[in-house]
Design a protein that fits this description.
Layout (H helix, E strand, L loop, with lengths): L2 E6 L6 H19 L5 H15 L10 H22 L9 E6 L1
Antiparallel strand pairs: 1-2
Helix pairs in contact: 1-3, 2-3
Length: 101
């Protein structure tokens, strides 16, 4: 794996449930982005775009590559969060951090 994932889940989650959630999250994220080697670089590029343009940038402010990265990450993140926390998750339920190996 080219990145380290830290999932924030409820304290009463068992180790088996945490492991399953980790696999689900990584599987959905990697599947949507095209593989584990793309997660960290895409995450870094997405964070850079957000720092420069905000959480909801105007599409006209982004060039074609930035739009592609931003949209791809948003879709991958949504798929991963839904895989673990469900389609009706509350925004203050769970979360994650990604860092390099």
């Amino acid at each position: 794996m080219t990145y380290v994932l830290k999932l924030y889940v409820s304290d009463d989650t068992t180790l088996a449930e945490r492991d399953a959630a980790h696999r689900l999250f990584c599987g959905a994220l990697e599947g949507a982005l095209g593989g584990p080697e793309l997660v960290w670089p895409m995450y870094v590029m997405h964070r850079s775009i957000v720092q420069q343009y905000g959480e909801a940038p105007d599409e006209d402010d982004l060039n074609a590559e930035q739009r592609l990265v931003f949209d791809a990450w948003q879709q991958a993140e949504a798929a991963a969060l839904e895989a673990v926390f469900g389609p009706y998750r509350n925004l203050d339920e769970g979360g994650y951090d990604i860092s390099p190996v």
